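Hey,

Quick one before I head out. I ran the complex with 1,6-di-O-phosphono-beta-D-glucopyranose overnight. Inputs first:
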Amino acid sequence: KRKGFIFDLDGVIVDTAKYHFLAWQKLANSIGVEFTHEQNEQLKGVSRVKSLEKILNWGNITLDNEEFTGLMAKKNEDYLLHIEKMDASEILPDVPRVLELLEKEKQGIALGSASKNAEVILQKVHLIQKFSAIIDGNGVTKGKPDPEVFLNAAKALSIAPENCIVFEDATAGIKAANAANMISIGIGDASVLYEADYVFKDFTEISSDFIQELIKK
Ligand code: B16
Ligand code: MG
């Protein structure tokens, strides 16, 4: 059966989550707000606008529109410096193995990311041609945990949501996948991603048999 496999980008295909962390931490500290890994967890999968809103909230800071836009631009400039030097060596372990298996099995493969930088990154790591649909931060009006990004991906693949499987590293993304009525697979820490249908530390733990089972289901 042809299923839709939808991949989040940051923290699933590549470890850009660490670059987002560095850029947000620098920005938060520059306006006198402390920024911990626990706080960063709450920003994973969350749009740039919503992320800055949260940071300002933690610091009890109110800004006018112009200042807000300025800080968003600053964060992205810093983030772009980090991703500039990315290449295929930054693809997370066994992601290519799983993509190749899905390709061989003629499954639908889509990207469902909150990032507006998704295409640039996929190009840099030479994976863009693996995806028959790319839904990113430029193609949605409501960010994760809203299911819109994954529903749009399913539509682009012409596969019903209940026949889609989502790989996600963020709580917001797992919530979005569940709300879309898709199978949610957490990539990361099970104590954080407990709402997912399955959790694996990374793709090295995902066997070909497991993927075949998902296809047959
Ligand atoms: P950008 P994902 C998300 O990507 C990141 O997890 C999140 O930390 C980031 O704020 C968001 O993209 C927006 O990214 O600033 O590049 O548009 O995990 O959904 O692939
Ligand atoms: Mg992510």
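Strands lie at 4-7, 108-112, 133-135, 164-168, 183-187, 198-200.

Talk tomorrow,
K.
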